[in-house]
Amino acid sequence: MFRPDPRTRATWRWGGALAAILILQSLVLAGIFWVTANGNHRRAIEHTLLDDCGFFALTPPAERAEELRERLARDIHRERFLALFDANGRRIAGNVATIPDLPPGTSASFVAPVAPTELPGKTSDVARLTLCPLSDGTRLLTGMDLDDTEEALRLTWQSLLLGLLPGLCLALGVGLVAGRRAARQVDAVRLLTERIVSGDLAQRLPVPARPDSFGLLCAHINSMLDQLQMLVAEVRGIGDDIAHQLRTPLTRLRAGLERGLREAEDRAGFEAVIDRGLAEIDSLLGIVAALLRLRELEDDERRSRFASIDLVRLVEDACDLHRPAAEDRGITLLCECARVPTIEGDASLLFEAVANLIDNAMKFGPPNGTVTVRLASDAAVPTITIADEGDGVPAAERSLVTQRFYRGRRDGVGAGLGLALVKAIVDLHGFALYFAACGSAVTIRCAREMPAPLR
Amino acid sequence: MTQILLLEDDPGTADEIRLELVAAGHGVAHRSTLAAAAEAVRAGGIDVLIVDRQLPDGEGLDLIAALRSEGFRTPALVLSALGSLDDRVRGLRAGGDDYLPKPFALVELIARVEALLRRPDERRDTRLIVGPLDLDLLEGKARRAGRPLDLLPRELKLLDYLVRRPGRIVTRSMLLQDVWGYNFEPNSNVVDVHIGRLRRKVDGEGEPQLIRNVRGQGYIFDVPA
Question: Which end of chain B is more exposed for a tag (fewer CB within 10 A), N or C?
């Protein structure tokens, strides 16, 4: 079958459905009219016919023919049939030539064609008739012409059909408009998705001020696109960052190896070159490993391994691990632990986060200063605060420092993944990471701030 | 000579690992499919398995499970890609096996393989006497050639760990995992500083060095001859 465009189907469906409803309604209306009108008319005719029978039965036989002619003369509309037949079926008087054939099972009245004698140009006419036997053996045929009834019925049908025609046009028109409108809305979405598929994520669907269900759908699609656009931008940014971050040390590595190959003269010289190369490669591998770890931390499955953690032990262990390194740098590492309730989490990850923060504090705080690690309880919520005596992260950079590859200082220390890792660990636990309003304190607030993970 | 079965389908990686293991004095049988590896293990004579996870004919963990169900207790080191660290891999530790996330340093791999080959001295001895060292864990005291060493509790634990694994590479992450009890890769030299201090306390003036640095990320406790 020929299907020009699937979108026109909506038009035809809407129009077709409306037209069908209109036709059905007209048919029912006509039916009701016909049944009601026909029934009334028939009762009226039968009443008249029975009146005639009664009248002629009471009329003396000698006067019947005369009375009949008189009645016919009075029937100026020529809608009456009256005839008197003798016992043998011969006409005595009246305007019907013969007794029509009685349909079988005839009751009081019946419809049959009659042969009129006085209607010019007409040899047969349909009428409702009654044949009543009279006392002297003669029979009276009385009837009423049905031309009028048929005419009325015909008019009814005609007017209904005439009314139906504009109705059908209207139905098709409304269907066309509704279908077009639906098709246009769908078209807008289709065109948009085509543009999105081809890479243009900036497109948005129009949403009316008072949206209907389709408008709400459009709004949903728009918010989905917002999310998608953000994610794509993030992924692109990460890809660029990774390439950029790896390119610098790789360039350095290549240059170092090249120079070594050219300038090294003995075994010791080559070994020094190789050692430097290995150190560069290790730092590159460190970046890759940290990135993979970030990716791993985004996998929520890790939450299924959460267990009870004694934070006091964890914080003391972290201080213990860093104390010698701090002393070597002339930094005083203070560890203040209050008793706090146990929390649910991954001890190794939280330890890594705290270790990273301590490491940062030692690296970026003033030389020979003090780094304080404080475990406290804030309204029954354990908080771990790490502070050095410096100014901390400048306020303007605070939203940036937890992004990958952001380095507060351009002095080449680290790859700028430490705080991103801390943030990822804190996020995984559903905890929150705060920077103090002034000073360098960074706080992990160990309260779940999102719905409990599925177990 | 110990025989190590290496199941790895990337020829370049396999070559590097093989060369390193051979240099460390181990025999290496290299296979690149699960079927070939299973055959080699069933033939016998394998001391340790090194198993990559994604192989042409299936998943390395399944091979280990199959061998275990056949009664083979050969310890296995699983090379798993980071970012796909699942519970099955994590459960390996409990079963006497180990895992190493990629990318890894070869020295780490050798250290882990040797740890699997020679289970540490797990006797619950509270008194260890190795070479000139005399560790009394109950008293929390250590002596070297009669000279008392002034060790912090953590330093004693470190020394205990090293002394129980003489002549074998112990990496930073092994120390963090087994001495501190946290499983992560430190991004600074915190562990080195601890070892440095321990070493200064253990090695007095003119005494031979007991704890040796392995370039990269490990240490070896050498028992003096």
Answer: C
> Is B90 close to A305, i.e. CB distance below 8 A?
yes
Q: For the domain A8-152, what is the CATH code? A: 3.30.450
Burial B61-81 (b: 16+ CB within 10 A, else e): bebbeebeeeebebbbbbbbe
Residue B190: pLDDT band with limits 50, 70, 90 = confident
**A303-445 has the same fold as A8-152:** no
Q: How far is B221 from chain A (nearest CA, A)?
A: 21
Task: Give CA–CA dist A414/A12, Å, rounded.
Answer: 67
Q: Where in chain B is the domain with CATH 3.40.50.2300?
A: 3-117
State the complex-level ipTM: 0.76
Looking at chain B, the domain(s) classified CATH 1.10.10.10 span 127-219
CATH code for A303-445?
Answer: 3.30.565.10
Contact state of A321 with B180 under an 8 Å Cβ cutoff: yes
Q: What is the pLDDT of residues B53-63, one digit of tens each?
A: 888 888 888 88
| pLDDT tens-digit series, residues A121-140 | 777 788 888 888 888 888 88
Give residue B122's pLDDT band: very low, low, confident or very high (50, 70, 90): low
CA distance B155 to B152: 5
Chain B residues with CB inside 8 Å of A321's CB?
176, 180, 190-191, 194
Residue (of A53, A380, A5, A417) closest to A186 by Cα position: A5
Distance from CA of A220 to the nearest CA of B (A): 32
List the domain boundaries for chain A.
8-152, 213-297, 303-445
Residue of chain B whose alpha carbon sits nearest to that of A319 = B190
What would the DSSP string read from start to end of A203-235? ------SS--HHHHHHHHHHHHHHHHHHHHHHH
- Tell me which chain B residues have a C-beta less than 8 angstroms from the C-beta of A278: 215-216
Give backbone dihedrals phi and psi of A126, rounded to 5 degrees, phi first.
Answer: -90, 135
User: What tens digit of pLDDT does each residue of A145-172 get?
Assistant: 887 777 877 887 888 788 778 878 887 7
3-state secondary structure string across chain B: CCEEEEECCCHHHHHHHHHHHHHCCCEEEEECCHHHHHHHHHHCCCCEEEEECEECCEEHHHHHHHHHHCCCCCCEEEEEECCCCCHHHHHHHHHCCEEEEECCCHHHHHHHHHHHHCCCCCCCCCEEEECCEEEECCCCEEEECCEEECCCHHHHHHHHHHHCCCCCEEEHHHHHHHHHCCCCCCCCCHHHHHHHHHHHHHCCCCCCCCEEEECCCEEEECCCC
CATH number given to B127-219: 1.10.10.10
CATH topology of domain B3-117: Rossmann fold (3.40.50)
Contact assignment for A325 to B90 by CB distance below 8 Å: no
B87: closest chain A residue by CA: A305
- More confident site: A453 or B110: B110
| Chain B residues inside the 8 Å CB shell of A355 | 184, 186, 190
CB contact under 8 A, A317 and B183: no
Instruction: Decide if A308 contacts A345 (C-beta within 8 A).
Output: no
pLDDT tens-digit series, residues A54-96: 888 888 888 888 888 888 888 888 888 888 888 888 888 888 8
Q: Is the pLDDT of residue B28 over 90?
A: yes
